[in-house]
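Handout, tutorial session.
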Amino acid sequence: MTATISERLSSTGTANALELRGVGKMFGALSALADIDMTVRPGERRAVLGSNGAGKTTLFNCVTGDFPPTTGSIRFFGEDITAFPPHERIRRGLRRTYQISLLFSGLSVLDNVYLASCGVSRGRFSFRRPRRDDALMASAENLVRVVHMEDAKDTIVANLSYGQQRQLEIAMALSGAPRFILFDEPAAGLSPTERRDLVEILTGLPGHMGFIIIEHDMDVALRVAESVTMMHNGRIFKEGKPAEIENDPEVQALYLGGGEDG
């Protein structure tokens, strides 16, 4: 008998959260990714670092299905999702944030999180107003608290600071109890205070909820990650624990180098 979506989401078995084997991505004659092999355990928190143009965001796009890989395979909790469209990956518990926040600017914070919760639920096409005891609204209220925005829940998104918008996007990514999240530069443009708040939010996520974070701020990335993958020119350059990567002379030289956006 074929397993239901809920059964797949509640059962991880011994499969890794994410397995990439020989993943490559070509844009015409340009090789953006080449021979990417990566294994991430359930619940693991990993940082992917590298200078601009290293291929980090392209890697995320391949995992989420925004740009399917040209070569190789991607497995999510043991299931081959290489050819799946983005919405099928979302249904299986994969979430992602973007470098530029994608929000409903004319709605409130709570409404944004509620709509995100509706989008990953069975009743996502309903036009009925939520009741006071609506389970999705209760979930949205809880997620607003998780990202420390309860005092701003009725604020229109267009009136939020940039840092608050990044916090809101994290709350939306948490909708529907994801199993794994990809965070694409969540600290970009944040003040020192907002970055400390971001670290607290990420380190406070449930232990079973793994994630990969792309981040130029090494202080943020190395504080929230337990493992690090360093990329360069579309390839994996080096992997290790945060302390190993931070103190590696080759990594320091490469990370401080220039490049083009990626």
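The second record follows below. Compare its token runs with those of the first.
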Amino acid sequence: MMRYSWEEFARMMGVEPQVLENKEARLLKKFVDDLTYPSHCKFCQGLDLSNLNPVHHPSYELTPACNHDCIFCYSNVAVKLGNAPRPGYYGWDNPKAITVSQYGEPLLSPRIVEVNKLLRERFPDARLDLQTNGSLLTEKLWRKLDFDIVMISLDAASREKHLAITRADTFDRVVNALKIVGSDKSVRSVVRTIFMPGINDEDIPKIAELAASLGVDEMMLQPLTIHELNVERLRKAGLDFDRAESIKELLKAAMEAKKYIDVRISGCLLAQLKRMDALTLFGVRRVAREVAPLVKRERMELK
């Protein structure tokens, strides 16, 4: 039995084959191939595509409370649905990285310094990441903290837009927090930004430029997950739901930010994109809808 390539078969049928050319697709593919995984995502199970049920690396949750009320927030949804994790450590022995914290604003807790020290002593070899909105970070508090990576959320480049997204007039304080961590080269400083097309597209390169000017090392640009309880708020704010599911749109936003800062996208997503060919990458979409966030790690008592 003879086998023919599709080009050979086409010529046998009297048709000269043509290769579909898409310069934008090839540009996106090169951009993805060159992207580095986020510092925060190192050691995360989601980078291993052979793992069919990956979980985020461990976290220590301090409080589900927050002084922001962001229109996209999954933690807010968890609180409303009554499934936010109670304070404590969610993980296992001998972790390589621990996040403080994934729910709520950790700097609201009076135990932040105590827990930071506890984790250093209990897990001396683990990388410690702080995830915060930055609005409560001061020079005085910073001198008491000891983290390896600090991720500060900022999704707007102006006080007005920040207020519309977070429902809190804290833009100047968040910028000051970026300045504090950006000037401390003993830590890896990251501005964490959610891509919300129709709401903050034009802000993303401005956030990147602002963060870079403050000495911030990295931008972690994340796609939006649309939780059902947030749909109406996002719609009123102007979210383009169709573009929010487009990988191409996310990558184009990242390319604009890359002009100013070391931009990276979510590691578990990037691991999948790196395996795709240019045309698949150009048209692929992600399922952005979700009902409620879940913690897949068990709570463990620290002694």
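Points raised in discussion: The chain is about 35% helix and 15% strand.
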